[in-house]
Amino acid sequence: MNGKPRKSNLLVHLVMIAACLVMSYPLLWWIGASFKSAAELGNPGLFPEQWLWRNYSDGWVALPQYTFTRFFENSLLLNATTTLLHVVSASLVAFGFARLTFPLKGMWFSILLLTLMLPGQVTLIPQYTMFHAFDWINTYLPLIVPSAMGGAFFIFLLVQFIRGIPRELDESAKIDGCSWFGIYARIVMPLTVPALITVMIFSFIWGWDDYFGPLIYLNTVDKYTVPLALRMFIDTQSAVAWGQLLAMSLLSVLPPVLIFFLAQKHFVEGIATSGLKG
């Protein structure tokens, strides 16, 4: 009786392992190709015959006048700032929608959700015109300031989470003389740590991978982020050093991957709980 379930489980595991290997092939090829010479890139094998470790050292200093140290610093500073603003502003707005009562609350929340359906291309030209009038072009302000508005997706995620926190905690805090901001800071926010970490991860990864925003608003190389720097490999060389490009692109994915794995437990908890509460 126990033999059939074991054979069935073994078959399922074998199929899952095979599927995992198939899906892992592009990643493994990417890693191997980052050590290949240009002549070996056409080789379908995963790993090179001769490992060119200099692809990483040469790629780090390949761009004229600047190294990737500068571009990584720019991306880290920019995304750390936007992530912090997203967490603070989204949590404040979400707390207001989830706990406070004010006129036309339902209408404003509906308008907030409608903005999720608005393509970014629709607002691109008005935003650029506005930021140009503010003289913010070629600065990080057009990329940072919108983060202070919270972001509709992040606000919705946190509202769903906060609604699941018992209101009895608020009432107890009020009896003890706690203000609404005190309830937000001392009671609600500590209980929403998983959701806040989820917001942090999404914000950092989306900001780190953003190519279009920096391309539109940044004009000088010294302000470029990592995605723009990777594009310069093709812009500035007649013969593209693909090995160096693949090596730098592989390094560029390490920060978001590292952050995800360090906070994976809280990330999963925040997504699962936000989906169940509300």
Automatic annotation (TrEMBL):
Topology relative to the membrane: Multi-pass membrane protein
SUPFAM superfamilies found in the cross-reference section: MetI-like (SSF161098)
Pfam family of the protein (one): BPD_transp_1
GO CC annotations on file: plasma membrane
Cellular compartments annotated: Cell membrane
Keywords: Cell membrane, Membrane, Transmembrane, Transmembrane helix, Transport
Transmembrane domains' residue ranges: 12-31, 76-95, 107-128, 140-162, 183-208, 241-263
Protein name, UniProt field: Putative rhamnose oligosaccharide ABC transport system, permease component
Naturally occurring in which organism (per UniProt): Paenibacillus pasadenensis
